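hey so i finally got around to running the thing on that chain from the lab meeting. sorry it took forever, my laptop kept dying and i had to restart like 3 times. anyway pasting the input first so we r on the same page abt which one it is
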Amino acid sequence: MNASIITVRDFRKRYGGLTAVDGISFDVAPGEIFGLLGPNGAGKTTTLECLEGLRAPDAGTLRVAGIDPTHDRRALRSVIGVQLQSSGMPESITPDEAMRLFCAYHGVAPRHDLLDRLGLAGKRRAQFHELSAGQQRRLALALAVAHAPRVLFLDEPTAGLDVQTRVELHALMRELKGDGTTIILATHDMAEAEEMADRVAILMQGRIVTIGTPIQITATGAGLTKISIQTANGSLLANGHPLPAVAQQTTRDSYAIYYSSDIGRTVNALLEAVNAAADPLIDLRVERPSLEDRFLELTDARSGNGR
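ok and heres what got predicted. didnt touch it at all, straight out
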């Protein structure tokens, strides 16, 4: 890995008697998309806020492009862009006005093209309070990237966005990465993290439980493959069919779902079972373990529940 553009060492943050972040450490390389994943209360937003200079850590070392976020906030503002979960814009400001204001602050030309690209072409002169929640998030993203920051912090960036805007956001993220921008992505969307992130850290109860590429993380789990099968008469839905190499089985909608350690043996047994029942096969899907599967596995392990 190249020299880190973000360094976190033994970082801790408490709120009264609650420990939000409990001694985490990680590095992020320049131009990397780094995902912070975890359930609500895991410490994702607290970590971002301290890296952004919005809160001070109680212990540990934080550096962003060599800058201490707590003690040199002015220098920090010139190298980072931030999209928060909620924006504190004046109700009467328009997207055009906000873009001019933010770009003037950073000493760059207004990027009205970003407003158009993120679906705000028809809302550029609307007041902020007239925008939908999704439109407000798009505006926040446009403002966060307008000055071409070296590091971009995104906190749940696709929440409330329609499918087309999500696609456009992901395309923009790839372009920024291609130009060398480092992106820190905090999200609940495991599919988004698996698609977009070079590496991810999964946080639970203020600690990092695993870190690596999505492929590395899914490979270190139980390694079970998900097999979903739908038949015309639902003969497999009663869960009364013991099958080889199946560690867990469940049902969802009209599908019987199996988690298998040996795809070939399980699929052969399933086909034999539906043929014996004279139950026509409608759909059969075999899916490798996903980041979401591994996340749920880790969550169950931390809570003491078996999968």
